[in-house]
Design a protein that fits this description.
alpha+beta; 4-stranded antiparallel β-sheet
Amino acid sequence: IKMLESLGEKEIEVSKGKGDELILKTGRSRFKLQCIPEDSYVLPEFEEFEEETAIPTDFITGLRACLPSVGMNPARPEQMGIAMVEQDGKVVLYSTDNATIARYVTNMDSSGLELPLILPRDFCDGLIVLTSKFKETAYLSLSSTEVSVQLGEDAMIATTLIEGNVPDFKSILDNFSEDELTVIPEDMDEIFSRANYLVGSDPEGVVQVTVSDGVVDFITKADTGESKESIRIKHDWDVGEFKLHPATALRGLRAA
């Protein structure tokens, strides 16, 4: 599907080839794909859901924001998805890869939903794609083990939920005061992007961040070289320094 989307053609001719082959033609391009035999493709059986909740558009925005911080460690399945948590009557989305935490407060009413729960990453990816293609209102249905989203009569995505305890994100983030937030300059994304290019695959490559009165210095050291950049920020941070990998910083910046 992603290959077809990259072609950008409006009309695609689909036909059956020999055996289990599928032939796709569009413009001057022709593709022959090997398919799974019909009798080998078994659709899972999902529950019949009775309750449906309309999904607001900011829920999808929240999924996009949280995806960069989803973990990839199979030994920590509770981190391999996006958590839906109830806070003050609203659905709040969280994700973590044990290095960064993402949070997005949605306008979705949490009443009637069995929360907390964890949506698998692949489900979130698929839901984002579907809602971009189908303009009908999306309706969410939940059980204790499964989740389904219906878009009109033609599109549906369903999966089993991730088993495991949802981390106590709220207590972790309570250590940070929202009254002390500082606006992040756009230059910071560019600085960490350049540092990430410099570091490359060097496992020892890090950025040393030094905070002084009104100025933050970024010193990158890697096998390929070094760099130093500075920006001015109005802040109330404690003066000091710390180190982090630029890719970790970029995940947080781009989730925001």
